[in-house]
Amino acid sequence: MARKRRNQRNLMKRGGIWYVEAIVGGRRIKRSLKTRRLEEAIERRDGVLREALGQLRRGPQPEVPTFAEIVPLALAASVKEHAATYHDDHKRNLAPDGPVLPRLGSLPINRIDGTTLREWWEASVRERGWSTKTARNCLASIAWVFEVAIDCGHLEPEQKEAPFRKLRRTLWRQARTKQGRAERDQRKRAKDRVLTPEQLGRLMATAETQGPESEAMVLLAAECGLRLGELAALQWGDIDFGKDEDDTDRVVVVRRTASRRSRLEPTKAGRQREPWLSRRLRRVLIAVRRHRVSAEAEDSVLAWRYDGLIWKLDQLVKLAGLEHTTFQNLRATANTLLRQWGVNVEAVREIIGHEGEAVASEHYTGKRLRGYRPPELLAEGELPTDLFARLCRAPEAQKSHHKSHHPKTGARKAPRLKAVGWCPQRDSNPLWHTAPH
Q1: How many C-beta neighbours within 10 Å does residue 186 have?
Q2: Helix (H, G, I), strand (E, B), or coil: what is residue 316?
Q3: I need a labelling partner for 99 at 20 to 30 A (CA). Which of 9, 72, 187, 335 fits?
């Protein structure tokens, strides 16, 4: 009989399937490794032997729970430790009919190895037609379940890293291929819909006609780069108006964010930032506060909540005649224009709150607006955010043959609205619609 190789010790093949057969602590172990490949059999054999040795040292252990049994504990922990957006992702990925539990739910948590995860990955990406980004998000939910299993004492820390190390190596290698680079370049990002200065000026002019609160919402997003949740959580105590318009210490302190369920949380980066308050935005916010019955430090600056802000921005974008624009697009526009105007990179990061230049280049810096131009000079008392009022202006009305324009002047007719202008009772209610007659 041919002598076995050293790496095939304790392995035997029957019917094309590899088995592990060994004696550990005077006890005979024989298990099917459920694979025909030698490399996978060696990896699974080592795991079986380590598990048997661990049981021998620790004595009788309670039955290890399955992946599905730990999922409820993981979701409960996610509510306390993660932002609402991340928790919603975990809840969707770990649903009973989702992409994970049908394949991994019945397996004991300590039996899920690198080969099992790779098989799940290939089935998810190929059968469901997922992008790599979507599959990576789902893989993060699986890793969170492993973290909770470690906290509960069902796994050792090294048992959590081993299954993911091999898969991450494979994904890293695939991402460096031509196909991986092409797929990464085709992903939709906020920088793909960056507004030009003229388009941004048109949106700001439209918001001005709808009242100071609508204008304040657009300016906070376009000049200060506030996210949707940060707008919903902004309070009057977070605004430092300074002594007057020439005081350069006027800032907006962004220290919290609000989820769709109105739960206040720390910002996405976990730290506060202080974008500068422009003169125009200062005047608009003072006008908003003047119309408020109560403007205490803990009162919200904007009357709309999460969904109301989305609805209001969509309404303004349509009135301005622009394509679909989100708060993330306005944030990318602020980053791109400030860089184009020659504002220092560190100052832009202080305004927008990026974690690093890699994040800004990947998601927020628009390519079509890149190019050299002389840096803009700030007048006395001006701040970088004051450049938007000077350089982002709506183009003058041009002569057009469209029926919606005046036949002589070429000016565009204003849409007929049920309510024109701004009133606190109407604009404070996100359900009040100003649809055309």
Answers
A1: 8
A2: helix
A3: 187
Q: In the chain, which residues have pLDDT < 50?
A: 1, 190, 370, 397-437
3-class SS at 213? helix
Domain ranges of the chain: 6-58, 67-185, 194-395
Q: Give 175-206 as a DSSP string.
A: HTSHHHHHHHHTS--GGGGPPPHHHHHHHHHH
CA distance 245 to 250: 8
Query: What is d(CA 343, CA 403) in angstroms, rounded to the nearest whole number?
Result: 42
Dihedral of alpha carbons 29, 34, 36, 41, sign? negative
CATH (residue range 194-395)? 1.10.443.10
| pLDDT tens for each residue of 53-102 | 776 665 555 578 889 999 999 998 888 777 667 788 888 889 888 888 88
pLDDT for position 303: 87
CB distance 194 to 332 below 8 Å? yes
pTM (2 decimals)? 0.59
Phi, psi dihedrals of residue 405, rounded to the nearest 5°? -105, 155
The candidate with the shortest Cα–Cα distance to 384, out of 330, 436, 343, is 343
At residue 239, φ and ψ (nearest 5 deg) are: -110, 125
Q: Which CATH number fits domain 67-185: 1.20.1280, 2.60.40, 1.10.150, 2.30.30?
A: 1.10.150
Domains 67-185 and 194-395 in one fold: no
Measured CA to CA, the distance from residue 394 to residue 202 in angstroms comes to 4
Q: Are 257 and 269 in contact (CB under 8 A)?
A: no
Question: Which residue matches tokens 């598990």?
Answer: 51
What residues does 28 pair with on adjacent strands? 23
Residue 176 confidence (pLDDT): 66
Bridge partner list, 147: none
Bridge partners, residue 70, by sequence:
none
What are the distances in angstroms from CA 97 to CA 14, 92, 119, 124, 141?
36, 9, 18, 13, 15
Residue 355: per-residue pLDDT = 61
Q: Which helix (H) or strand (E) holds 359?
A: helix 357-359
- Contact (Cβ atoms closer than 8 angstroms) between residue 299 and residue 236: yes
CB–CB of 326/313 below 8 Å?
A: yes
DSSP-derived secondary structure for 276-302 = BPPHHHHHHHHHHHHT-S---TTSBSS
Q: And the tokens for 221?
A: 């997003």
Helix, coil or strand: residue 251: strand
